[in-house]
Amino acid sequence: MNLDKKKEANIFWFKKDLRLYDNEALESAVNSDKPLILIYSFEPSLWLQRDSSYRQFKFAYESVQDLKNTCNKNNLVLNILREEILDILIYINDRFKIKNLYSHQETGNMWSFKRDLQVKSWCDYNNVGWSEVSQFGVIRVLKDRDGWASKWYHQMSLAETNNRLNFKNKRRC
Length: 173
Hints:
It is globular, with a radius of gyration of 17 Å. The protein is of the alpha/beta class. The chain starts with 7 loop residues before the first strand and ends in a 16-residue tail after the last helix. The chain has helices spanning about 25-30, 45, 55-75, 85-95, 110-125, 150-155; strands spanning about 10-15, 35-40, 80, 95-105, 130-135.
């Protein structure tokens, strides 16, 4: 028996979408067969961006506290951190074998876009699947707008996610 084998886990990364219900990415993570680690990080570099303000930080902080309370009521642990997401993923992956990362596809600024490209590169290098669910009909990295409308209509016609996820039987790390 290999005693050095790390326990496998999946990560759900809350970004701007802090909904516990009607959240397609979270539903996929909850329905996966691996223990789940929920994380939110107040990434220091994000709050240094010119388009970030104290008012936005305060709103995010209060919203994350509400999410934490809702998680607690559903027997979930939300790990609230203050590190860059890549540092967090490296730290967790040193202790567990991350199988999949789940999040929504954030619509943000150039900083968040570049950060997500770095996360994608890290996931590819470490054989971590990243399920990044598109929202609001935004389709990233289009070479042109040909076919955009049909893709948008397809996204908007998808069924709503289950508003009452069953968190009770979800294994945690």
